[in-house]
C-alpha cells in the first residue's frame, strides 16, 4: 500500500546538452577584462551590470566586439568587457567574451524567422504565470513551457494568479506530480496574498517569467520590483538616455536576497520545441528514464510506439495502486511529448 507520493526529487533536470559550446578562449590582451551581467539588449546596444554584487557595481552600455562575430548575446549572459567600462555618460564598452552558459532558453521559430533563437541564458527556472480565470488557463501552453524548461535544464514554477476567482486544486494536481512547483497568488483591492511564497521561490535564483496577456504578470513584476517600470527603460543608442522598450527580454533585480533576478519576456508567447529530443525530455523523469533503457532502439516512447518499455512497466505493476501511479506518470510524460509538436499556440 505504501505508495510514495511523487515529488520534485523525481524530476531530474540536467543542463542542456545543446547549450552553447565553451567560448572561453584565453586572449592575453583581454586579461584585464571586467566581468558583467547582461540585463537588456536593444538594437545592438547591451545594458550590462559590471561587477554585479561587487564593491564597484555599476551600469554600463556595451557593444559586441568584432571578434564575437554573429554569436548572440542575450539577457542573463555573463560577459567579459574591455574598453571604457566606467559606465560614465556616453561611455561604450566592448564585449569580448561570452562565459559558457549553464542554460539556454530558445524562443519558437515563426514565419518571419525560421530559427529557434536563444532568448535568455543562465536562468535557473521558468516561471509560468497563469491566471486561474480571466483568461482561462490553457494546459497545453503550460505543458509546452514545461518541456522548454526541462529541455533547457531549467526548473519550472507555476505561478497561479487570481485565486480570488477560481480554485487552484485541479492545476496543482496536474503539475505537481511532474516536478513543477506551484505558488498561488491573489490580489484584491486591499490585499496581495501569496507574494511571500513567490519571493521564497525566487530567492537567490534567476527566473524567467512568461505568461499570456492579462494573466497578471505585470502585477507580479511590479509588486516584486517596485521600480520595474523605470528599470525596463533600455538605453537609447543615440542619446544614451532611457527609452521604454516592450519587445526584448530584460533582467530586473528583485530587492532582498542577493542574486535574485527576474527576466521578463514581453512578447514571448511560446518556445521553440522542434529541436527537443524525446530522450532528452525523458531525462527530466528519472524513474522513466531508467525504465526506458529497455526500449527498442529508436523508440519514440509515444503511446503508439511498439514494444515501448514504459507500457511493460505499467503492465507489470505488482498491484493496482502501483499501476495507477505508473499510468499517471507515463501519461504525464506522454502529454509533454505530444505538446512538443503541433501548433505553437493552440487556441490562439
Ligand atoms: N481578480 C484579480 N485580478 C487580478 C489579479 N492580478 C491581476 N489582476 C488584474 O488582471 C488584469 C491584468 O493584469 P496585468 O498585470 O496587467 O496582466 P499582464 O499579464 O501583465 O498583461 P499584459 O499587461 O496585457 O501583458 C488587471 O486588470 C489586473 O488588475 C488577481 O490576483 N485577481
Ligand atoms: Zn520507449
TrEMBL record:
Region (Disordered): 1-32
InterPro entries, alphabetized: G_CP_dom, P-loop_NTPase, Ribosome_biogen_GTPase_RsgA, RsgA_GTPase_dom
EC number: 3.6.1.-
Annotated GO CC locations: cytoplasm
Keywords: Cytoplasm, GTP-binding, Hydrolase, Metal-binding, Nucleotide-binding, Ribosome biogenesis, RNA-binding, rRNA-binding, Zinc
Biased composition (Basic residues): 14-25
Molecular function terms, GO-annotated: GTP binding; GTPase activity; metal ion binding; rRNA binding
Comp. bias regions, Basic and acidic residues: 1-13
Organism domain of life: Bacteria
GO biological process: ribosomal small subunit biogenesis
UniProt domain CP-type G: residue ranges: 112-271
Residue ranges of every copy of the EngC GTPase domain listed in the record: 121-269
Pfam family membership, one: RsgA_GTPase
Binding site for Zn(2+): 295, 299, 301, 308
Names of required cofactors: Zn(2+)
Manner of cofactor binding, per the entry note: Binds 1 zinc ion per subunit.
Top class in the EC scheme: hydrolase
SUPFAM superfamilies, sorted: P-loop containing nucleoside triphosphate hydrolases (SSF52540)
Subcellular location: Cytoplasm
Function, in words: One of several proteins that assist in the late maturation steps of the functional core of the 30S ribosomal subunit. Helps release RbfA from mature subunits. May play a role in the assembly of ribosomal proteins into the subunit. Circularly permuted GTPase that catalyzes slow GTP hydrolysis, GTPase activity is stimulated by the 30S ribosomal subunit.
Assembly: Monomer. Associates with 30S ribosomal subunit, binds 16S rRNA.
Name this polypeptide is given: Small ribosomal subunit biogenesis GTPase RsgA
Organism: Cellulomonas triticagri
